[in-house]
């Protein structure tokens, strides 16, 4: 078959889109499947450890840690203490991510790596909701004024304050005479875990706020903010069958030529072929052609046919019922590949894509691909429950994280998979549409903030002099803290992690206090779901290693406390 990797990989859930149409892909951790009573790494998954075993709690959090007088809001969390040994036993905290925690209850159970870690050490598991998402927002209307307190600094301080001050229901009545909270980090080993953006939060907390957590686990941690991230597409290309990537390059070169040419009729004909006859702007059409590549980051090992390889099969004219023969390594050539890609666009990508946002009812409309209309609900919906990526866009535009999947001017790397019109300016332009000035307030990019300043604060990739395992034992860029770094070989976000090829000094080597794991053929956060370990021996090996490492660090914590350290 053309798509050999398709036998191994599938997105975690059909609805777990990498990106809203023509929006930057979000760094969302995978949504866990329902629990199954299967053996996994030496313990049985309780079928009862599903949503019913996970409880809801809330914590009174400061709106702005630098200005407590602004007041507080309630920050939601899930907790599961089914395997909790009692006061001073470990607590595994999932760092908050850029979405509501509805649907993420599984991260408090042993269907996921953090929950399995908690079970292995006799601990409780907690999933903390990120400020401004779900039911944890201080404001209902999200504008440039009210979003001023959605910052990296506040998000990090939320985590630390929660660990020190949360009145956790499962330890509340543990000891009436205790001189400190029975869950205090002074007496209890807290383990912080995160993948993707939460993984970066975890690493940045290790570097900037050491002392609260006994150990850290990160997966696909995007610690280096990048203004342009054309390298995102390099791992995707490596994951594609070679005939598909070759034909895709031919298609994009042809699209670039047509869009740059003087023949408006030819441009209109090309848009119509792909199902975008009503899309006014050429840059939006160019961006739409890349949306299929973003699906790769959602792939998991535990089952079947993934969207990227489905797209490739269409490009190679092997859609269901086509009766086409395998085209071989050379591909089908420009004309057939363009026809196949256009059929995929019309038949697979477009139908229902705008309906899924909740803003349109016509399954064939392409209105959600228009990023120039300021009145579009994508930009106009300021509610917390918006589906237009609003809060994440604020972090991209304000901190700024940027992470724009763009090539062209400003990019050190170029990719033949990306149309020339999809550049950094395309993404940055949308910041002003999302966040027009409100009460004199605006976003960071407009005020001159840069990723360079952010990386100077966080440490980014870390000390470029760290080039040996002996040096890595110091834990850089976590500055000596015990931390696990796990990344996928084919993770599109790997260029922003410590395993990036262009990290100064090269990818971070593994050390005793900072082990680095690379998942062969892995994509984004593939160690998080335990079902991936059931499907893939390499993932299982790495998951066992991660759990064993956390167990050792927890034991070290108790040994130090016993010595009065």
UniProtKB/TrEMBL annotation:
Recorded source organism is Ophiocordyceps australis
Q: List the residue ranges forming a coiled coil, or say none.
A: none
> Gene3D superfamilies, per this entry?
alpha/beta hydrolase
Which InterPro entries does its entry note? AB_hydrolase_fold, Peptidase_S28
For this chain, the family text in UniProt reads: Belongs to the peptidase S28 family.
What molecular function terms (GO) are annotated for this protein? dipeptidyl-peptidase activity; serine-type exopeptidase activity
Query: Which positions make up the signal peptide?
Result: 1-18
Instruction: List, alphabetically, the PANTHER family matched.
Output: PROTEASE S28 PRO-X CARBOXYPEPTIDASE-RELATED, SERINE PEPTIDASE
Q: What is this protein called?
A: Uncharacterized protein
């Amino acid at each position: 078959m053309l798509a050999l990797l398709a036998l191994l990989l599938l997105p975690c859930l059909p609805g777990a889109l990498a990106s809203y149409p023509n929006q930057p892909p979000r760094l969302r951790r995978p949504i866990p499947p329902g629990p199954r009573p299967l053996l996994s790494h030496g313990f049985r998954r309780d079928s009862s450890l599903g949503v019913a075993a996970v409880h809801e709690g809330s914590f009174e959090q400061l709106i702005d840690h630098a200005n407590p007088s602004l007041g507080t809001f309630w920050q939601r969390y899930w907790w599961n203490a089914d395997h909790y040994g009692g006061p001073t036993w470990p607590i595994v905290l999932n760092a908050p991510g850029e979405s509501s925690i509805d649907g993420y209850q599984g991260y408090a159970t042993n269907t996921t790596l953090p929950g399995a870690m908690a079970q292995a050490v006799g601990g409780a598991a907690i999933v903390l909701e990120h400020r401004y998402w779900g039911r944890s927002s201080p404001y209902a209307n999200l504008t440039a004024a009210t979003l001023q307190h959605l910052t990296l600094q506040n998000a990090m301080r939320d985590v630390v304050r929660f660990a020190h001050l949360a009145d956790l229901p499962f330890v509340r009545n543990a000891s009436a005479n205790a001189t400190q909270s029975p869950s205090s980090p002074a007496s209890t080993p807290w383990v912080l875990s995160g993948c993707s953006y939460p993984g970066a939060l975890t690493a940045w907390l290790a570097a900037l706020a050491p002392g609260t957590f006994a150990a850290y686990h990160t997966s696909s941690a995007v610690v280096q903010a990048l203004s342009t991230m054309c390298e995102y597409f390099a791992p995707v290309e490596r994951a594609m069958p070679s005939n598909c990537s070759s034909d895709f390059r031919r298609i994009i070169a042809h699209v670039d030529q047509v869009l740059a040419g003087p023949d408006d009729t030819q441009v209109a004909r090309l848009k119509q072929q792909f199902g975008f006859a009503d899309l006014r702007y050429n840059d939006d059409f160019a961006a739409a052609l890349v949306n299929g590549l973003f699906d790769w980051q959602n792939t998991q090992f535990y089952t079947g046919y993934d969207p990227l390889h489905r797209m490739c099969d269409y490009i190679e004219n092997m859609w269901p019922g086509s009766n086409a023969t395998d085209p071989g390594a050379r591909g089908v050539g420009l004309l057939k590949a363009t026809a196949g890609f256009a059929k995929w666009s019309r038949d697979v990508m477009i139908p229902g894509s705008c309906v899924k946002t909740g803003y349109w009812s016509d399954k064939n409309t392409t209105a959600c691909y228009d990023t120039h209309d300021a009145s579009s609900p994508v930009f106009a919906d300021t509610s917390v429950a918006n589906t237009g990526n609003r809060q994440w866009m604020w972090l991209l535009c304000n901190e700024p994280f940027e992470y724009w999947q763009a090539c062209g001017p400003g990019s050190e790397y170029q990719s033949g998979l990306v149309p020339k019109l999809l550049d950094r300016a395309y993404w940055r332009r949308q910041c002003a549409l999302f966040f027009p000035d409100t009460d004199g307030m605006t976003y960071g990019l407009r005020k001159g903030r840069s990723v360079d300043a952010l990386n100077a604060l966080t440490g980014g990739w870390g000390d470029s002099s760290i080039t040996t395992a002996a040096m890595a034992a110091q834990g850089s860029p976590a500055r000596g803290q015990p931390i696990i770094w796990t990344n996928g070989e084919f993770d599109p976000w790997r260029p922003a992690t410590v395993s990036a090829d262009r990290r100064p000094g090269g990818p971070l080597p593994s050390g005793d206090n900072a082990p680095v794991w690379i998942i062969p053929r892995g994509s984004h956060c593939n160690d998080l779901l335990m079902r991936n370990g059931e499907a893939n021996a390499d993932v299982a090996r790495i998951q066992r290693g991660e759990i064993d490492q956390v167990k050792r660090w927890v034991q070290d914590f108790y040994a130090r406390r016993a010595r009065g350290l």
